[in-house]
Amino acid sequence: MHGRSSARVGGSRARLGARGLSRRSFARSFARSFARSFARSFARCSFARCSFALLLAPLAGCSLAFSPPIQSTHYGAPERLREGELELQGATSGFALSDGADAPRYGQARIGYGVRDWISVEGGGTFAHKLWAMGYAGPRLTLSPNRDNSIHAAADLELGFGLGAGGSAIAEYVDPARGDTRPWNKRLAFGGYTGIGIGLHIHWFAMFGRLRLQVSAADGLPTTMWTSGVGGLQFRIKDTVDLYLAGGYFNMAVHDYTQYAALYELGVAVHFDVEALMAKRSRRPRAR
Hints:
By secondary structure, the chain is of the alpha+beta class. Helices cover 18% and strands 48% of the residues.
């Protein structure tokens, strides 16, 4: 009798032990399966494969929707234009990712004219391959009471609006049953922007910082708020060319998610004194 009881107890313990091992094995198998599935999903939505690196959000999946920014680069140091001067600027930007700097993906061209020393008008276009193409225009108000001194501070305020096409950067990952998959160039987009800048000029060198807020909307896409802040250095060559480089952050916010990314910028601007050029041209002797 005692032997039978011992055998039954031993068998029960063995079965319980087997069940415990089975449960632990199942838990380990489930964890490995979940990790592999998450890794595959993450790879499909990685920075390398998603068209717009900024918009990686694993928790939200790859079916993000956004309206494009009005501008994708910044101006540089305040107080570059004086009355009667014309400026042509080109700039490019990219994102600094955790595994290294991304190649420049976004470009912008700008033209500005100094109506007075304290106000200029400007316009241009910003673009990103298969993401957006936007035109913009607006005034820039500059405060620089000591601009003739070799060392002086300056500040400016920018305002403007934009119109173009873009948005839905990763439409290729959107389930057609869940969302609108029209390409970026089939979406009318518009919005406005405002920003401030401060700078310290020391002879041919300047340090500056900028903050900007943009709000945009595109056909079939949610209203999107873009905020950015950069700090940088600017170098003037022979009072004609300005070179600048900057780094900072870019933030995109839609009603149900937000995403930050570090950015860098490179830009060059060339200045022309329109009045001096016209006066010089008028003084040329006419050919007989």
